[in-house]
Specification:
Helix content is about 40%, strand content about 0%. By secondary structure, the chain is an all-alpha fold.
Amino acid sequence: MNTSDNFIFPINIGNPKEITIFELAKEIIRLTNSESKIKYLPVVQDDPKQRCPDISLAKEVLNWEPKIELEQGLRQTIEYFRKM
């Protein structure tokens, strides 16, 4: 949105600090004091085993990088959904 009209490329704004879905699920369960259990399903064939986004373009073009740590962001998200 804040680039020139001739910039038409997607920009990854993920977090370059890699975390597994298992670790993320455990953290959400911990922060919500949930009694949920993690269910394992067969892996999708073309699903990547590692996901670590390259945000160099976001830094260069948008002067953007994550400013909130995962736990703080999860706490804010959980609070938002509790208020709904």
